[in-house]
């Protein structure tokens, strides 16, 4: 019985460590223009994984499928401790992207170590 309990605890610890070490989530949000004024039907998110963000949209790659309007946010899975840069472009019904948005950069923080357990007074 003791070995079974120890095995279950060890398996839970391994699963927790795997989840902590395999990414984090970042939510990006932006405002959308009125579609009738711009012809925009979707948003296209671009990403660059680099320490320094640049304004040249050609140095970014599209991330995922276009997001149909009125969607104005997306939650991304990213690697902890890594720097990312993003920009958004609106896309018209012909699939042509418009001008890029401002660039936003973020370094995803590494997870904190767990809190110590079993704090007590010494002998």
User: What is the C-alpha radius of gyration, as a whole number of Å?
Assistant: 22 Å
Low-confidence stretches: 2-21
Measured as a percent range, the helix fraction is 10-25%
The CATH homologous superfamily of the domain at 23-107: Immunoglobulins
Task: Characterise the protein shown here.
The chain contains 2 helices and 8 strands; from the N terminus they run αβαβββββββ. By secondary structure, it is an alpha+beta fold. Helix content is 20%, strand content 35%. The chain has helices spanning 2-21, 35-38; strands spanning 24-29, 40-48, 61-62, 67-68, 73-78, 83-92, 97-100, 104-107. The strands form 2 sheets. Strands 2, 3, 4, 6, 7 and 8 form a 6-stranded antiparallel β-sheet that branches. A two-stranded antiparallel sheet has the order 1-5. The two termini are 31 Å apart. The model is unreliable at 2-21 (pLDDT under 50).
How are the SSEs ordered, and which strands pair?
Layout: H1 2-21, E1 24-29, H2 35-38, E2 40-48, E3 61-62, E4 67-68, E5 73-78, E6 83-92, E7 97-100, E8 104-107
Antiparallel strand pairs: 1-5, 2-3, 2-4, 2-6, 6-7, 6-8
Summarize the structure.
By secondary structure, the protein is of the alpha+beta class. It has two helices and eight strands; from the N terminus they run H-E-H-E-E-E-E-E-E-E.
Q: What are the key terms here?
A:
Immunoglobulin-like; two-stranded antiparallel sheet; 20% helix; six-stranded antiparallel sheet; 123 residues; disordered N terminus; alpha+beta; elongated
